[in-house]
Amino acid sequence: MNSSPILIIPGEKKSIFFEIFFKSIKLTQVKSPLILICNREILYKEIKRFKFNQYIEELDISNITKKKIKTKKIYLINVSNEKNKAYIQKCFELAFSLLKKGFTNKIINGPINKAKTLNKKFLGITEYVSHSFNQKKFAMLIYNKELSVCPVTTHLPISQITKKINRKVIKEKIIIVNNFYKTFLGFKPRIGVTGLNPHCESFLRFNEDDKIVFPTIKSLQKKINVKGPFSADTIFLKDNRKKFDVIIGMYHDQVLGPIKTLFEYDAINITLGLPFLRITPDHGPNEKMVGKNISNPISLIKALNFLDKI
Fold first, then answer.
1. What is the pTM of this model?
2. Which SS3 state, helix, strand or coil, does residue 58 take?
3. Is 1-135+274-310 assigned to CATH 3.40.718.10?
4. What is the pLDDT of residues 210-234, one digit of tens each?
5. Residue 102, exposed/middle/buried by CB under 10 A (0-12, 13-18, 19+)?
6. C-alpha distances in angstroms, 220 versus 118, 174, 216, 266?
7. Which CATH architecture has domain 139-269?
8. In sequence order, which residues have a C-beta less than 8 Å from that of residue 97 and are 6 or more positions away?
9. pLDDT digits (tens, 9 = 90+) for 179-198
């Protein structure tokens, strides 16, 4: 086996993941072995529904070795079918055990209903995975080869954002993003950073953009190609965004709204700062579309190809 296996957690029992997975396999040539971690009955029900005819070999988790895994093949590790929350947690725990043993360093997880699964203990799956590996410094990168974005804060309510914006956290995100591009993509990225306030201005006595964002950027400019703060309402204009490889914003929708408008499903969500590469396609469970066979697989195709080439 030449390529490290890619672990795949399909996620919610009721979602479009299997549909786009089967489509992706037909539309792309991935050399890396793919290991699905899910329930056998759920998988074969979906195989029958979508008439997927590629052979999937089941693995014994108690006796799994890299020597048994071959390129261009799909495998299954069966997980008992329990209540949804317990089932998904079991899938993640099994995947985590393989990652911690060094079996592989690549994982994709399908869409997860955060409200039901995380029970408000974590802001999102990114935080849940990072916590499971005791990793406090991490970043969420929505990656597209043309332009990527990273929010400094992720799934926080708007009223809580200003409490979490500080020099330390902004600096951490910039450094993590810069290191990822240098290590995995082989170049030093051009990074633009948005301000927190409209037009980077505030009528209040304390302006976060002057007191926090600007000094942080200035302190890093000798080693990192980073500029800002820029007004969030103009940085994504065509002539402005082409100056950057990554735009880092202060909160989730400030940068994810524009990137999804620009590229729709043509982007992948990469968790940076972990001792492995974790990617999730940039879409949700989309229960209303289940079984209709009209969902777009491009995000998962990008995720598979990205990990296959790393």
1. 0.90
2. strand
3. yes
4. 999 999 999 999 999 999 999 999 9
5. exposed
6. 35, 9, 7, 31
7. 3-Layer(aba) Sandwich (3.40)
8. none
9. 999 999 999 999 999 999 99
